[in-house]
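Propose amino acids for all 390 sites.
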């Protein structure tokens, strides 16, 4: 594929959508990038960044969209989450789409079942203006139809991409990470309250009573936005909770942003992966997708994405806010190697359908199908539309 513009946050910015966009663009090739810059962010985005939208400058959205029409772009791939598109719930995305003269495919990283009126209007506007919309789960597609009245013929379900990782025996990797002889629980990602890591720490005393050599590894730097607003308070609260429960020696903080090669090693060393997210409306998780790629037995709260991807024996679901259920699931998997291995193999098999080469092929087929769709008339911004009742 050639002449595709990807519009998104982009490395070196540290966020899951930036990483997703870089990986997808690398797998497809023939692309350029329109980088979304928050206030104060400057340069350093690499040679693929041909345009920048300063999200606090309203005129930038239409200006850059018009510029794409003059530099040979034939398809635009928009990554959307309300928080990355600037103020007013990212309303600028509608300005951008209205000024485009080529087809746009919107990949939705968030689909809210209970949006605000402004969020509902923005989503409806994107659904109307897009040539196609990509979601990463059946649950997200269902919500688009039921809550937003989406034309489901325009909605494609393409899984979250993952690296092509080998299936590795954890004990072969643990010594290199200082975890020899340990049973390893792992959570990773940018650290913040939305991750719910305290739920695992609260469950640890019961786990350690049964499996004394357990270590819970929390891998990742604090989310940059949280770091700016409150520093390391959340991580400090987690450390204090571990101390209060006598679990300091069983919780390992790896406080840094890790690149793909190091992340792969931590995943390979894990016996059980955990996503204890308290937001049960979450419709995608890159971290849980990566755990599938590595063939990990997983324990998770039953948020929408986890409920779907861990079905058919690919993981364990436990109620949010229930330390006893969390500890019981973790102990069961840590003590029963046969069960853990069988679950890991089912997860790994499912993950083969999510590797980047296959996901990129799905996007390429979609782009090829849409490449000749004319877009000579600018789309109007959608007016406010009454939301359906819950």
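Proposal:
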């Amino acid at each position: 594929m050639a002449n595709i513009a990807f519009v998104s946050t982009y490395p070196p910015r540290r966020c899951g959508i930036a990483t997703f966009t870089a990986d997808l663009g690398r797998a497809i090739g023939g692309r350029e990038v329109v980088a979304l810059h928050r206030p104060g962010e400057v340069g350093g985005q690499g040679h693929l960044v041909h345009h920048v939208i300063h999200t606090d400058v309203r005129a930038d959205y239409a200006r850059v969209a018009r510029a794409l029409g003059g530099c040979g772009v034939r398809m635009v791939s928009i990554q959307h989450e309300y928080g990355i598109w600037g103020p007013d719930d990212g309303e600028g995305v509608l300005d951008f789409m209205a000024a485009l003269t080529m087809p746009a495919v919107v990949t939705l990283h968030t689909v809210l079942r209970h949006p605000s009126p402004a969020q509902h209007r923005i989503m409806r506007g994107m659904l109307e203006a897009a040539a196609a919309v990509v979601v990463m789960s059946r649950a997200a597609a269902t919500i688009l139809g039921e809550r937003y009245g989406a034309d489901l013929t325009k909605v494609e379900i393409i899984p979250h991409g993952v690296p092509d990782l080998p299936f590795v025996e954890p004990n072969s990797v643990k010594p290199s990470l200082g975890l020899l002889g340990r049973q390893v629980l792992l959570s990773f990602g940018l650290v913040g309250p939305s991750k719910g890591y305290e739920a695992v720490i609260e469950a640890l005393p019961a786990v350690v009573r049964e499996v004394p050599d357990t270590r819970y590894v929390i891998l990742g730097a604090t989310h940059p936005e949280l770091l700016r607003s409150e520093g390391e308070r959340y991580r400090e609260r987690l450390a204090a909770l571990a101390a209060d429960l006598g679990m300091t020696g069983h919780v390992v903080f790896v406080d840094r942003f890790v690149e793909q090669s190091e992340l792969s090693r931590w995943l390979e060393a894990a016996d059980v992966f955990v996503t204890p997210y308290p937001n049960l409306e979450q419709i995608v998780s890159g971290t849980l997708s990566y755990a599938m790629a590595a063939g990990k037995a997983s324990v998770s709260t039953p948020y929408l994405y986890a409920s779907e991807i861990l079905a058919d024996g690919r993981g364990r679901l436990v109620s949010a806010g229930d330390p006893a259920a969390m500890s019981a699931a973790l102990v069961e998997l840590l003590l029963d190697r046969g069960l853990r291995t069988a679950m890991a193999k089912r997860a790994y098999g499912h993950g083969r359908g999510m590797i980047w080469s296959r996901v990129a092929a799905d996007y390429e087929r979609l782009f090829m199908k849409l490449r000749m769709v004319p877009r000579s008339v600018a789309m109007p911004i959608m007016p406010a539309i009454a939301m359906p009742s819950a």
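Residues 337-351 form the longest helix (15 residues). The longest strand covers residues 31-37.
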